[in-house]
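Lecture 7 notes: from sequence to structure.
We start with the chain below.
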Amino acid sequence: MAKPERAVLEPLGEEFDISTHFRTSIRSLAVSPFSDSETLIYAGTKSGALVLFSVTPKYSSSTALVSETASLDTPRITSSSEGLSLLRTVAVMCYQKLPCDEQIKDLLRRKNFKEAISLAEDLECAGEMSKDMLYFVHAQIGFLLLFDLQFEEAVNHFLQSETMQPSEIFPFVMKDPNRWSLLIPRNRYWAMHPPPAPFEDVIDDGLLAIQRAAFLKKVGVETAVNDDFLLNPPTRSDLLESAVKHIIRYLEASRQKELVSAVREGVDTLLMCLYRTLNSVDKMEKLASSENNCVVEELETLLEDSGHLRTLAFLYASKGMSSKALAIWRILGRNYPSRLLKDSSMDESTMDSNVWDISGKETAAAEASKILEESSDQALVLQHLGWIADINQHFAIQILTSEKRESQLSPDDIITAIDSKKVEMLQRYIQWLIEEQESCDPHFHSLYALSLAKSAVELDSTQSLDSSSDPKISDQSLNSIFEQPIRERLQIFLQSSDLYDPEEVLHLIEGSELWLEKAILYRKLGQEALVLRILALKLEDSEAAEQYCAEIGRSDAYVQLLDMYLDPQNGKEPMFKAAVRLLHNHGESLDPFRVLETLSPDMPLQIASETILKLLKARFHHKCQGQIVHNTSRALDLEARLARLEERSRHVQINDESLCDSCHARLGTKLFAMYPDDTVVCYKCYRRQGESTSVTGRNFKQDVLIKPGWLVMD
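Predicted structure tokens for the same chain:
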């Protein structure tokens, strides 16, 4: 058999573009390239030997089928069950069906990733490839891109593969062996990429490959390295940052998937490690403070060594390790480093470190208070209450008065533990016990009253020593927790509570100028004269004094008050205006003779003449009115007696035909009774009905019967 000669393959026209025809209709055919002509089968003697050439290198096979033709003058396409042939005068090109995965593998080996995924998607749409196989191809392409240092594109393909497990990324972040080594699937895919290795090693190997490719390109040797890397070689730090950012993107998306517990732990733990690598403090704290599956044992040393104590505290708290979390917040609250709070976007040199320290301490105290508000561990609360109160007493109050804990703390132990210098904190806690917890313990009420009284006395003495200071400013400086001034709170409590010891409180404020508070206490003790004297003479509050007299309810109280106005004693001038006001408002209820006896000879008559005249007229009017009422009452009484006598003296005639209005029995000689509405009943029915209710059901005690002729007054 003659050995066929090589022939030069001429390019085909559009109508005979086999690659286009293959992609649009056949899809699973491949051209068979052969460079060794001895492997070809002789096709005939007409026009000489036929030689097979490769036109489209991306479609390949290891065998070929050459079909015989009678005439090669006109190019044409022939097909059979085994393949497709293009016949021309100078060449025969044969196509043969190949498995889908072999075609995709060939594309991947040549790094034609876009064409490979396009082919896979077309096959999946045509039903010639399963969905899982498409996910498999995405994952395979992702790993190939990852080892080519194209991390963004790699992660994009990972995210499109629903069958890829997040644990397959673990070896790139954490060296083996580790806690999750056994979870990593031993899946090498099509063995097209190296085994997983830490990112540092992958990047180092990739940079060496780029250097080698650059050298080979200089000598004219083509390589598979990305041309962009050859033109602009990346730095190791840039590649490492890109790898970390995009793997973070993949792990964040993986958190939304349904994963087994161990894999969730790995995802969150490695995510925290990657955040730390980029020093993404905000993301670290957000992950640590939210619900997470981080493994504390894997992170606590790492975070502590890197100085991310806030993140570690959040992580401890999220795992219920309150004691460790509070220990960290205590350290930060006592000596807060500004760098742990500083936002990465701000320039440290432009900020006041004192402002940051104050803000940092407040933050530490606030976070610690959040933990303690839910804690029922009294020893733990008392251990950290002091330093939190030193920073901000509001946070300490929130801890003590929290309703979030399952069981409340012991009030006695809390009161004992509160620093005696933190008076407002003690007052606020006892106020919460009394007002919100509705405690009726006299001890707490007395303790609260004494504490308020002591603070009020101290404030009063301070204002007395410095008369030039503004009382409002001084009061406000002493009341940073409460909105109401101290004296107002004291007065309200003294009036509203009956469970404290008024004598003990009175003894405490005896030498002070807290006259209104004294009046309230004397009133609790029932010392009316002292209350009136304070209201009328010390406070000169005529309205309050008159109101108190009205509460007493006796007319002699007004006379007593009038006497105080006219004879205040202690060298004080008589208060004639107040006395006249009292006579004007309440003179009608006073005895004129007692008033005249009380009036001082020094009181000018013209001041009170009009009021006294009005008082006398009112007194005369009251006397006449009383006489009218008295005489009218006597007339009514007389008329009522007369009517009763007439009713009792009425005669009733009973014959043999008379019947009982209740039982309808003949009365005959029986005893009977008659009601005011003229109904007659036998004695037996009378006993049953009673003397107030007649047979008609009318109750004469509730519905009084009025007959014509009786005196009736509205």
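Points to note: The mean pLDDT is 79. The beta strands are 29-31, 76-79, 83-87, 92-97, 672-674, 680-682.
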